[in-house]
Design brief:
The chain has 198 residues and is mainly alpha-helical. The protein contains 8 helices and 2 strands; from the N terminus they run H-H-H-H-H-H-E-E-H-H. The protein has a domain at 118-192. The longest helix has 11 residues, at 9-19.
Amino acid sequence: MKKGTQHTPETRKKMRQALLGRHHSPKTREKMSGEKNHNFGKPLSPETKEKLRQANLGKQHTSETRKKMSQDRLGEKNSNFGKPRSPEAIEKNRQAQLGEKNHNWQGGISFEPYPTTWTEDLREAIRKRDNCTCQLCGKKQEELSEKRQKKLAIHHIDYDKKNLDPKNLISLCHSCHSKMNHNREMWTNFFQGRKREV
C-alpha cells in the first residue's frame, strides 16, 4: 500500500474481523511494552488525545472487566503499592480538591458564620436530649476515641447554620457527621421523617 493512502471502510472491517479473538504472545507483548516501544516517553498530542476521547465516548466496560480492573488496583497488583507519595504530589492533589474544584462544593456556605446563640451550652443540651448517643449509628459519647473526638458533633438537619430550633439539631459521631456532606437532600428527608422529642 502506498504511503499516505488509506484502506476503504470495507477493507478495514475485513481486517478487524480477521483479527478478532487473536492475542499477542507474552513475548510479543513484552517487546511492545516499556522502553522497547517506539512510542515510549512520547507525549500524545492534544489532537490525538481528543480523537481517543471521542472514540471512547459512550463505551462502557462489561461488569467482568470492571471487576477485573478493580482487582488489579488492589494491594500489590497496584503499580503504586508501597510507594510513598512525594510532598509535591500530595500538595498537587490537595490543590485540586480546594474550593469550587471539590465535588462537594456548596457555594461557600461553610464559610458563613454561626449566630451568636450557637453556644456550647446549646450543643450540650442537644447531646443530653439525645442521651449522648449518635442518632445514626447508636455509638455512645463515652465510646469515642480520646485522640480523635471527645464529644458528639451537633448537626443541622436542614444544613442552615442559622436555624437553631432544637428540632433541627441532632447529635452525631464525627464518622456519621462526615457522611452528611454527601446526598444532603436524602439525609434531610431521612432525619425530618423521624419525630424528635424536644
